[in-house]
Structure formats: C-alpha cells, structure tokens
Amino acid sequence: MSILLDLQFDSRFENVKIHYDLYEAEKNVQKVVVLILHGMAEHKGRYREFARYLMRQGISVAVSSHRGHKGAACKADYGYMGSDGLHMAMEDAHDLMHILRDRYPGYTYVLMGHSMGTIIARMYLRSQYANDIDMLVLSGAPSSNPAAGIAAKLAKMIGVCKGNKHRSPLINTLAFGSMSTSFVKKGDKSNGFEWLSKNEENVARYVADDACGFLFSVQSYHDLFSGMVEVYTEYPKTCINKTLPIAFFSGKEDPCGGFGEGIVKASEHMRTQGFENVTVQLYPTLRHEILLEVEKDLIFEEIKDFIVRNVSKK
Q1: Which of 68, 91, 226, 253 could lock 81 by a disulfide, CB 3.0 to 4.6 Å apart?
Q2: Torsion angle (degrees, nearest 10) of CA 280, 285, 289, 293
Q3: Helical axes 116-126 vs 85-103, angle rounded to 10°
Q4: Residues 145-165: pLDDT tens digits?
Q5: pTM of this prediction?
Q6: Cα–Cα distance between 243 and 241 in angstroms, integer?
Q7: What are the Cα distances from residue 279, in Å, to 135, 209, 266?
Q8: What is the per-residue DSSP string for 292-304?
C-alpha cells in the first residue's frame, strides 16, 4: 500500500492546478479505483480516514480538490470556482478519471460525490463522458429545490452589480440560514454548522478549519444553484447506461437532503430517466456528513459492500 499526497495536473480551464491524493491498495485485489469529489467549502483531507479504509480493503482511491478550494486556490480565492465553476470542475473530474484509467487499465471505475460533489457527479453522468464510469456513489446529495432557479438569477444579478467574485452574506443566508434550526435548542447560540453532523467534535473541527466554511462567490453560487436545477431535469438519452449501479447514502436527519424525503425523490428521478439499478440507504439518526459521524465505520462498510457486490456482477 502507498499514499501519494498532493499530486497535481493542469486544468484545461483558467490556469488552475488541480491537486489530488492517491491511496493505492496493495496489489489492488479488487481491481477497483474510486474517484471522490468532495463537497462545498471543504477539502480532500477530510476524506483521509475513509480513503485509508477502502485502501485496506484492496480498493484504490483518488480524492480530488475542486477549483476554488484548498489545494487548487490561494486562501483569498477560496469560494471562487471560476467563470463556469461546476462545469469546469466536472471537466477536471473527467481529466482525472482518465489519469486513473491510464494508471489502472481494465479496472472498475467508481465515481463518488459528497454533497456538491454529487451535483458534479450527476453532471458527469449527463455528459458525453457518462460511459467512463462503471458505478456511481452519492453521499449527502442535495434534494431538489424549487427556489434554485430564482436563487441563481439573484446571484447573477448581484454579480453584475458587484462583480463575480463578490461574497454575498444574503445569498449565503438564503442557502444555509435555516439549516441548523432543527438542531439548536431555544436560547442556545448557533455556529451555523450544527446541521452537518451530530458528532460535535466533527462540527468543531470544521468550524476551526480555515479551509472549511468559507463563503462562496456569487458566481459560484450561481453555478451551484444552476447545477441543482440541471441534475433534476431530463437526461440526454445517449448518456444513459440503464444498468449502471447507482447508490444514494444519506442521513435521514440531513436537511440538505430534505430529511430523507428529498433523497427518495432524487432516486425516483433517476429511475424516470431510465436508470434501473438505483438504491437508497438512509440512516435514521445521522445528518449530512455521514462519513464523519460517530457511526462512520458502518457507513464505510456499507459503501465498500455496495462496490464489491457490484464488481462481482460485472
């Protein structure tokens, strides 16, 4: 086994270097490689324990840093993903997937996204690159939001007035202001991130990490909201592999996923688009960051089992 940190390649867009960590399993007995796309306003280092677990199970893992995040941007540019950030992040993911395909020819290629990463992953699935992947794992996916289109237009308007790199507390409040309401007792002071996890140590680490929790620019919010709309619309028929194994893993107490109901609807949407092999696993007491909850060992094992089970069916 070996761990290679901060490998990098040049993005094809806007002079950005994309950094990634590679966890290579010994002999890779499973002949599987997983590419993990992290969520909004966090970084690849937060997936170290999960990646090490998969590596010990014989599965190699790459964890990428998105543009506008630690490892691909200076601190002053955290939150600005570029002029068409999510689509460029999807293209970056495609380029990294091909680096992995060259390094591991003939393997099973799994794309996994968390939160915003699930939007990028589903954009990938809607693209001409859909057949690059053999499996899709979605953790903490955002539910469909009928206000996303209006929010995208508002972010665009603010960008016209104040510039695309402007950080708008208003947009941030509209996006996340009510997320922690259900988890803060009346009279207690909120740090705004209680919704992430019932594991208070995890929340405290997130709050203390200056590479987490930063404000997105209005351009990046526009692209995020637009991506949320896009992945819940009709998929191009040429992109659909009907038998592609797709799994949603989510906490039932995650407001981002509509407390489970939004995840069920998201899976139903995938089925209406022609995907026949879609499963959902909801965890009753868990919130958004299921890979960092106290019960993470169970989540690790169930994601690993999903991957291994579907590799054996190929």
Answers
A1: 68
A2: -120
A3: 70
A4: 999 999 999 999 999 999 999
A5: 0.96
A6: 6
A7: 12, 34, 11
A8: GSTTHHHHHHHHH
